[in-house]
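Project standup — Tuesday

K.O.: blocked on the structure for the chain from last sprint. Re-posting the sequence here as requested.
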Amino acid sequence: MATRVDKEACREAYNLVRDDNSGICWASFKYDGSMIVPGGHGSDYSEFKQQCTDDVRLFGFVRITTGDAMSKRAKFTLITWIGENVSGLQRAKISTDKTLVKEVIQVCSLTHACTHKHTPSFVPDQSLISSPLPSTGLIPPSYCNQ
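H.V.: unblocked you, prediction finished:
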């Protein structure tokens, strides 16, 4: 069965992360059968990391704050999580499903694919320091409340 996205519900979660006044800095999108639905959201990045277990595949949309006290900017990243115990067929399918998710998540500065929580791209500060991100300056970014 073809994967579908609950666009309305996912767009609602996406907009919560994009809203400067919501306090929400991440949203996850998980599989419910062949449908991609919101999996949760929060203000603490460690809550997002807890959802990334070895037996799941999901997408995360995360707010990154860059700059100094005088000039803060919000940037956004899309994380594709594929747990180590996810089957080969599901691993292969996630790349086409990511295209569907990007129909909802239209603004993001970086995209990452991760399979292990110790991957540099899964650890926020290491990820952004080693990845090119326009207009970040020299000040390390912060990912929510770590």
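K.O.: great, moving the ticket to review. The two ends are 38 Å apart (CA to CA). The helical segments are 7-18, 45-51, 88-102, 124-130.
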